[in-house]
Amino acid sequence: RMLKRQMACRGDIHRLNAPFLAIYESLIPPEEERTKQKQLLALLEKLVCKEWPKAQLFLYGSCANSFGVSKSDIDVCLVFNEDINDKSEILLKLADILQSDNLQNVQALTHARVPIVKLKDPATGISCDICINNVLAVVNTKLLRDYAKIDVRLRQLAFIVKHWAKSRGVNETYRGTLSSYAYVLMCIHFLQQCRPAILPCLQGMEKTYNVMVDNIECAYFDKVEQLSNFGSPNKETVAQLVWGFFNYWAYGHDYANSVISVRTGSIISKQEKDWTRRVGNDRHLICIEDPFEISHDLGRVVDKFSIRVLREEFERAADVIQYDPNPCVKLFAPYVH
Ligand code: CTP
Ligand code: MG
Coiled-coil regions in this chain (predicted)? Predict the structure, then answer.
């Protein structure tokens, strides 16, 4: 049964192309949102600069990696050129500064896993989280953005997958399901391993970009304008790729032994990473290697209950696309687990 599924999707799969593309188009943020984000960033830069003239602000996450849908919050990172031992002190100071400039709902969350200041800008209506010295996130944001420039099908696939994950309630790390960042890496991996490949492995190529962050070498080929024809030998459409993606995670992936690795452009073994058993809270039930922080499994939030939810949702999605007469409605039907 599995083999048959892997070989053939429904013959009328192409009929799903137009509706998937319509969903993708409807989720793309309009240009005026970009303008407002820049406006808010400029305001924050002005305020921060007064207090810390040498600090810099960077956008990261979905507002900068090109996988952000309309009306998302923005993620900002405040970078000092030195190690900060006491982030709380800086965050409280920052909250103070922002508060006195009429920004709304300013809140310093100093005890969060990633300590941040939250705020809302009344002028643009945008909410924003500011963290400190999270340079790896700024760098992995660039990696995702660079992958997105190579073939538009990555962005199309990832928008559909993120939209599905949010609708189905499986994009909640605090409840044991996966982050948006993890889903985008799963999409990149899928497009690297299909044949002919739609995406290359940028970290396996000549290193035209190279930075050291927290003692980790972050290096890869970033002249991606040169790769704009890379995926063209593969003619698959977004409908086929969405089907292939869910089929891969439902019936094709070896959960017991495999780690997906965008860094190497392939599958590596759990054995090789020593991710074969639970260590502390890391259970390694679905293994997604971070491209730079390679000791970091983005599936570590998944527990023995949520792995079942996830795998059932992958199977449901694959089956809906395969058999349902109206898959586009059913696939995104809101659900709370
Ligand atoms: N990030 C990370 N490691 C994680 C999770 C997130 O480095 N385990 C960083 C990544 O740079 C990511 C950013 O934090 O781009 C934001 O993560 P997330 O909220 O998962 O992704 P977004 O792209 O912002 O998605 P959404 O549209 O759902 O906000
Ligand atoms: Mg985000």
Answer: none
